[in-house]
Amino acid sequence: MAGLCGVIGEGTQHLHRVASDLEWTGEETTATYDGGDVAVFGAFTAEAEADQPVRVGGDTHLWVWGSVFGVERENGYHPRDRTAESTAAYCARLYRELGEGFVTGLNGDFVVVLHDRDGGTLSVFTDRLGLRDTYYCQPDDETFVFSTAAQSLSRHPAVEPAFDPELAAEFLACGCRTFGTRTPLADTHRFHPGAVTTVDTGMLDLAMEPYWVPRYHPEDRSFSYFVDEFTERFRAAVSERLHPDREYGLLLSGGADSRLALAAMDETERQHVAAYTLGDWRNREVRTAEAVAGTAGVDFTLLERDREYHERSLQRTPRLSNFVGRFDQAHAEVMMDRIRPEVDEMITASFADTNCNGYSFPRRSVRLGPVGTVFLPVFEPMDSIEAYIDYWLDDPHEFLADSVDVEATLHEEIHPSQGGIDHHGVRYGSPEELFICGALTPRTNGSVLFLLQSLRQHCPAWSPFVDNRLVDLYLSMPTRYFARRNVIHQAMERLDPNLAAIRYADTGVPIDWPFAAHFLGDLAVRFHDAYLPVNEPPEPHLSHGSWPDIPELVRETSFVPEALHRHEETIRALPFLDWEGTLACYRDHMDGADRYKELYGLLTLLEMPVTERVVGQLE
Fold this sequence. Notes:
alpha+beta; six-stranded antiparallel beta sheet
């Protein structure tokens, strides 16, 4: 996988073992550094970024993996000219000017590593949201290992891989996500988001200092004010990242989020963008996306998934996992061999729902039979730790052993602390901030990150919704505007009325219609598909949406039970899993229940290489 890894202290000669996991395609450009008691390896998908480390003075060296789009300074925001210097050279220049405080105003998703050989320290700088999640472990008093690929740590011979049973069970029970700085791997931690963590290379002591802490501060302003601000800031976030010497691939759906990225581009910028839509057949979603691309004047390609697409994903993507998401959520990874020859960078609409639509807030819902679950424009109370745990914790899964109690683990890991709330090693100011900021940072609290993580293994990839200016705006919007308003729809109308006039695939009404029309349209489309189907899908597992009917796909194919039986010995060996419960969960799904997310999550963990290494230690 592309990224960074390193070893401090004893065992630096084993760096190559950890680094072996950081070359996913075999086309990465790599760089190795030997600084005596510190060794660092980098793998980069863009050759221009591989000239690392950069010397920043004396015997101090700096590495960067990620994207930096600009910096906020005392005299305002300054976009970065990406054609002038590499990301590492840019950060090195800022470091020479400002010292460690240079990271405070950086806008982007990145991890920076700084080795001060004279001072005897190695520092790791993480972006505000922890989008380049980086992990470390200290297997003994003389060895410290870090990597952007969590599973690679166990390749170091000093590391004996093992699961923390409670946190592994929590990962499976909470929608395949690991919260805060904890991980399911015993004694393995995630570097704190928005912080500088410094390691004494002699004593291996750690000191962590946050430089940014999210604070929710709603402003009593009109919704039109926030639409104006969002539109301006989003347009800037898009235009500042596009350059005429680069070709871009946009993952385009039939919805609003990715369409807004096109709306923010002018005609010249669109000439360097091609749209790619993943679909199973020419359904309503695909036809809508094609209409959007045609109206915007960009090339359109349908990347058609076949019946075996999920099976192939299961065989590949768990190797990329940092315990953030299910294997199927690395949506386009299996298609990148078709996309990569045509583009230099990928653009997604990742995190739009969380940052703009309040998808991390607990909405009231009702179940309407075949129509499905309908989420109402009303939020449940967000005033207690208990409410937060209830929101994230699913019903106990049959395949979890009786020896683990996920609810008890959550109560142990989420608790009051120093006037705030400690949530798996990250502190928030109040229960409200636990909901509003907890889904924001670290971004690993939400499983959607796996899409970007997988794309980065092939080329630079980014989302315009990840921008400090938009994050600041999100943290100032009253929650009432997330319930019954949609800032993305309003911004679309202002940026490109022609794109806004195209019907939203999920609701059947134009984007620029009011919220109530979209709410009722969603119900009407679901009712129509359930009882009055037109242009019916050619196979039972297909749908009119972005994804197939995955529950039905699991019933029609055999790869899930085959994979479960292939891993029977592993399930029996792991103390937090139960084999009979695994079979019961699968039978329940085959009898008509929707258990595919639980089954896919379990298979993700079972197919990870680190799981095989853990079981090998148990034998």
